Amino acid sequence: MTINRRTFLTGTAGAFGALAAPAILPRAAFAADTVKVGSIFSLTGGLSIIERSLNDATHMAVSEINAAGGVLGKQIEIVAEDGASDPKTFNEKASKLILQDRISSVFACYTSASRKAVLPVFERRNGLLFYPTYYEGFECSKNVVYTGAVPNQQLSNFIPWIINTLGKKKFFIVGSNYIYPREMAKVSKMLIEQNGGEWVADEYLELGHSEWASMVSKIKSSGCDVVLSNVVGDSVVAFYREFKNQGLSHDTLPICATVTSEIEIAAMGAEYAAGSYTSFPYFQAIDTPANTEFVARYRKFVGDEKAVTHHALESSYFQVYLWKQAVEKAGDTSTEAVRAAVGGQTFDAPGGKVTVEAENLHTALTPRIAQWQDDGQGKIIDAYDEPEFPLPYVAYGEAQDNLYCTASGLDTSKLPK
Questions:
Q1: Is 237 helix (H, G, I), strand (E, B) or coil?
Q2: Is 259 helix (H, G, I), strand (E, B) or coil?
Q3: Please, are residues 145 and 356 in contact by the beta-carbon 8 Å criterion?
Q4: pLDDT digits (tens, 9 = 90+) for 194-222
Q5: 194 within 8 A of 225, measured Cβ to Cβ
Q6: Can you give the pTM of this predicted structure?
Q7: Which is nearest to 301 in space by CA: 17, 58, 104, 120?
Q8: Domains of the chain with bracketed CATH
Q9: Mean of pLDDT values over 253-276
Q10: Among 353, 351, 374, 355, which residue's Cα sits nearest to residue 364?
């Protein structure tokens, strides 16, 4: 796995400059016998090892829907593009899908960097992005349906559990150097302090960094009793391996992560993560007939009996069904029609019931915590009884009875000055 860090740390302002004027997508832009949707995931480059699975899950959902009769009596056709692990390329491909292919709904992006790169395209050209990845929040757009976890579905359960159940109170926060890890750290610090803990360090290495000896040495000498990891990509593998190589044990100094999933653990080797923890709404280990069948179908679809499923993959799958239901409710595929219909849509996903909240177009999901085992799978040791309402601005005090992000837009008067 090799991450091209240049692509994540450079701006895309030049690519946005050409998008000066808004445009409304024509409704009758497609062949009469098909309904076209777009997808953009990294099929090449450093993130392809993860994003190919999101692309596969998207195609699997479309294949299932088509086999069952399609949508509005038509077959779904995917126009798939390669983001090539480069935000600038994501921007260009989004422009191509919306302007040239005249597609209104696109399933796309894994990183916040790629989402931020395409967002101006969808907002200026009135397209609708379905974004499947857990993310840092602090965004409110009527042109995005967010189907991954936000911080109150990953951290609001995790931090109190670490302090109260594990009995760990001194946090060393470590992450990759870009928006997601830094913003997740901001939320974490607030929750740590609110729950009687303290953070002894907040450190970052560049995305894709593979030399972790110095950082692990810092952790060893910091006096911390738990590591909160927001490390992303290849660096996850290098970090966990160095952690073990320096003699640190998850039994006494556990890594508690917001990113490490089945796919990173398969890449590093299960022995490096065994005993550590991750907070996600979905794990492959969810023991229900629906999830067992989903995993089997996915493995058959990709032709790999050892393929693993994970949170962003599951969201990539179920968001296609949420789109289908919205289209059928609206009887139309236009941005306005799908946006109006998608709010309130529910679906029995492999990980349980999910609901797109009409106010903020984020998704209610069930928070869970798992401890990684010797076989590379997570043992779920804590889970909410019901899905949790999504609060993208929870770090600023947003609550379900006091929403900052609503159908009317972001109420900036509620944000700290």
A1: helix
A2: coil
A3: yes
A4: 999 999 999 999 888 889 999 999 999 99
A5: no
A6: 0.89
A7: 58
A8: 6-150+307-364 (3.40.50.2300), 153-281+368-383 (3.40.50.2300)
A9: 96
A10: 355
